[in-house]
């Protein structure tokens, strides 16, 4: 009988193996996963997390270094979404949550709570299993009709990055592939000899690509594209050609790809993806919900406003790039990625490093405090953007929309029964982007009559427009309780990807 002390010593030696023995460590972990357990651990689940504890453990060092979790998904579970793909075949994927991006264990962990993982997934042989692992897994037949898929990571990661998707997907490949493409995208499997210390890293030890001379020059990492078979043509015509130049551009701007491969999955239309929070060092858990236009925070109702953080973040970075100049800004980004790769950091760290690495004359009264105040701790459009809008000349297309908005406001103000015949308004034909802008302006109106809304729908055939236009149209329907068009809202929720917004607005 192996004593608990000896068993713990073995595990400690296993987890402290140096990075250049990562393959050996991985094999040992695989053996551990098949060994008899040391007893069950106590655990609790709440809405957004799995909490594991061990009786008698008072400090972190007393807690197990390696945990095995047996997990079975069921349709009534909330950590995954069971749905159908574009071909009508069943599929399942980790759903987006207000806490963190579509993780199997969504949580807001402290920066030290990171770990490596291995996962073996069993599924019917006709299904493909994709996970956020480092390896390009291939199925292994267990028995007739059942396959096993094995994924792992060697880089310690937050639990909120652990994702899975299972479906009847097909790997998309170019019809013709040149020898140069094959050479560029060939498999990259680092050996122990590959790890040469190019520089000193600040993260915990793991087989880091930033210390691998071959990896640092790899512009295009191996990648796979999966989609329903009905989308084969679209993938071959468009998507497959876009990925290599995008990967190359990312390498030219940011430097070494931190991961050795990329899987791209074409998800169903009901995949929620609006403004979900990403893993961050902030462990308060006060992250905002999907980008809905409501004023109450979904998890913390005491908050009086809500941030559409991805959108505001984009405009903040755009503002900084414009203020500093592309050359200075992109040079800093590359240095930032190299300095902080493999770590979770605060936005203050990013901004502080930015200000320390730019010339004094380009700071122009910028500070971490005023950036936070103007961009991250205030509701609405940040002041710098408001000034930019006021100073910038409005383009012709936007002016045309404003003219149409004025017409619709006039129509809405007319009495139902007019005493004398008035000249009918003639509305211009608008592009889809112009329609979005028009409807957003009309959303600012306190009241729109059913007659006006019906005329809007008839004039622009709103029920036949793209999802962006119909999204705004549904907001108008909801705001003004236009019951005649509720079928449009029902259709939108069933067919498009932003149902979460209307769930929060009380339609469902």
UniProtKB/TrEMBL annotation:
Name assigned to this protein: C9orf3 isoform 11
SUPFAM superfamilies: ARM repeat, Leukotriene A4 hydrolase N-terminal domain, Metalloproteases ('zincins'), catalytic domain
Gene Ontology biological-process entries: proteolysis
Family designation: Belongs to the peptidase M1 family.
Keyword set, alphabetical order: Hydrolase, Metal-binding, Metalloprotease, Protease, Zinc
Cofactor dependency: Zn(2+)
All residue ranges annotated as the Peptidase M1 leukotriene A4 hydrolase/aminopeptidase C-terminal domain in the record: 396-508
Gene Ontology MF annotations: metalloaminopeptidase activity; zinc ion binding
Native organism: Pongo abelii
Pfam families: Leuk-A4-hydro_C, Peptidase_M1
GO cellular component: nucleolus
